[in-house]
């Protein structure tokens, strides 16, 4: 019997499962005949079997009587690092089954750890990420829209010393940006998470192609950390806050010239219009770059009904410690207090704080790195030298006045006892390498009671752009004699030595004040983070540049008006209706990750008097004009709904992915 | 009248201490000297604690009244002399130190000024600062250094644009188009820093041996400052110039760096120029004291004088160049309030930022500095260039206004008149019978 009489073969390869490659195949015109399927690895036929196993789901789907499945034992030893090109085809005429071409990459490290599990997970990733085989569509006259696959990768903070010790330029927020996008992308297709794009992305991509599905890779990373040379269409999702993109290569890394990367990816998504424009300026006005803000609004809108005035403010519980100016009055020339003891976390790893903590790599990186950046060390040493010079002339002052211990890394060791981080296994089909931690705060966690008019700034003190120094001084000058004004700093990061010494130094040098300053350090779970938002009247930002500023967006989504400048990403959403706009002027600076420190880009200089006056005006409004305050809060939420609601994000994504015409075709057409 | 004068440095030692704390007091003393000679015999002292009262006693035996002008900040003023003491000090902040630290009561200036009973400073801004603490009737005079007369000869040569000229320079002169800036651009590697220092030190040593020349031409902006003094804000001044003129070969910036250590003075500036990237405008660095004829040539060749300081007690270079009819690019704050206006300068906007007194080791935030609004500085550069090239009438007006404003501020007549009121006041204090309500 030849193929002319039997007709075409149709089939599907489900993939590798429990030691077998499984799937089905039949002759639609001759359902009583059996198809023989063979497995080819690297050009060599290694096995064959008849597709004659009964599977009820095939019968349900209209594949004959269901006796068309196969399960071919896969016995090749996976004992070396090698790439296996697998083809599953009909023996008779070589028809390759749908999803029948894929690659298995084996690595000795993985195999050494758990050979079976590793090969299983690689194959699972290779073959697609469904527990149940997808029923075939018997009716091909109207093919359904192709399934979309999104491969997501987020750069964790680089463990490289250069980046870790540099102000700004932290990759950590990519993680959180990615997590918000992931929720929206799930509504559009299937999401695959990868931790090593060069290893995983093309494997998944080829499997998708073989199944006739669409697949695109979203790389949530700065261009210099974007994996290039993939077959899979790659869209870098970039957070960027400076007025130019790096346009020269350095350190023998061509990707440091971002134009090199963007020319290869052929497209990009930024999370602000400012960054999109900056990229267009470098790449030409026709370069396809879309600005899609991180979709935060839907997750936060629930809090917007609770206003600080309408609810009793609940105490906020924190797994960490609280510094409170009502308890510890800073005084000029005081001996700097030692860092509070911080116990190692029982719930380790991934992310201590919803949203914004440091990264997976951080605990180990922090243990290996000095706790203070070179810049801070030189500043502290300069000040210390001054102090010592002064004391040498006035030895009677020396007792207890020299903060010698403060210059050096504190005795506190962050989280060195943590268990090692589990490499997320691909055996989990939609693995989340970064699960949100929802541990309850410990019973002895400190609590914070807020009252009065509350201004909150959530920021990473390690990041020089955040400019907490101006926030502190402007607040203190505005409210020196206003006891019911409160400023809350929620410090992001696991290592308090990034702010403890410098904060005390700054606070102690300010004139005496009666307003309240509170610093929170530690893990706030969702509930307590919500309480902090609820207790806040104004969210505060005085950054020199922002890629988006997720805390600002979160608080504003929850109807909290802002005190913020309207430069860089903030120009997308800060208006006089929803914020007291702080003036700022453009100034020169270096790209934060450029070791040459060339002053080739721009950021913004905060106009300090306007920040101080914004505090005063905001206080007046909250105190004396509740209607105006509520209107600002409503305006903030309304702005955010348009700006970063799921609906608008989906619309933007559909637009950039050209979902009507098919994502892959569009993306491939877009590559020059 | 015997007028004793003291400053920590003298003509013999000043060159080795340029840029050291209070070095500019010597220049102020030098400028005051001829004016003081109009009122009495000027006697320099080097050890006031020992000499002043001795001279004073002898003079009084001969019926000569005495006064001691201490060209020092109040916390260094010698107190407890029987001779009347007038601190002459520069101050550039809106508050004067009124707290004691380091167990030194003189760090509280209000105590010092209460003892001296009179003082001289150099701007109305600092007079206000003193009176804010000492009361509105405290006898303090704003008497700037009388530098106007010496510059009058230059007014006729004020031009917006100068044809290229070869100018001799006996000290260290670096034209940036002749320097390999790449060796100064790497900031990270320690060994690079050392290599840069060695290269620079070698260059500096060589420059001492050979007199050299520089090419000057185009629209020439001149700034004179001590780069180690953070108040001078030269980073903005330099970055603003390059931002404004990156593609303008006809703009020249001359920075005369005043600091006794050429390597310390030049290195940060060279490093910043390297970091600011390629530019077609010209930058020339001069270092050290220029011989008078070379300094006069520099003034003659200058189109505009620039200042981007956060605070100024009076700013001698700005006063000299503006007296010479050179319009300025300058902010309008502290001492500059007395002589800068939009008629004689391209005014750079600033805003206040909390700061500490510069000599307070506690760095207590008690005063404010003025931060430049950077885009306004860039605009001032560009607009001044346009005026220099295309609006000679406006340039001439501004030039005339500059010398006029400085005449009102620091001409010999103004200074002499103020000194006269001071000496009248002193006489009235010493002989209360003549104190007919003449305080100021």
Quick overview of this protein structure:
Chain A is α/β, with parallel strands linked by helices and 672 residues long. In chain A, 31% of the residues lie in helices and 21% in strands. The longest helix of chain B has 20 residues.
Q: Which features would summarize this protein structure in a list?
A:
heterodimer, A: 672 residues, alpha/beta, seven-stranded mixed sheet, six-stranded parallel sheet, 20 helices, 31% helix, 21% strand, elongated, disordered C terminus, B: 440 residues, Rossmann fold, 2 domains, eight-stranded mixed sheet, four-stranded parallel sheet, 38% helix, 20% strand
Give the termini distance of chain B in whole angstroms: 20 Å
**Structural class determined from secondary elements of chain B:** alpha/beta
**In total, how many beta strands of chain B?**
16
Identify the overall geometry of chain B: globular
Roughly what percent helix of chain A? 25-40%
State Rg of chain A. Answer: 29 Å
Mean pLDDT of chain B: 90
Number of domains of chain B: 2
Which parts of chain A are unreliable, with pLDDT below 50 for 5 consecutive residues or more? 106-144, 157-169, 344-378, 386-438, 660-672
Order of helices and strands of chain B: EHEHEEHEHEEEHEHEHEHEHEEEEHHH
Mean pLDDT of chain A: 74
The fraction of residues assigned to DSSP E strands of chain B is 15-25%
Q: Quick one: CATH superfamily of the largest domain in chain B?
A: Glycogen Phosphorylase B
DSSP strand count of chain A: 25
* CATH architecture annotation of the largest domain in chain B: 3-Layer(aba) Sandwich
Please estimate the helix content of chain B.
Answer: 25-40%
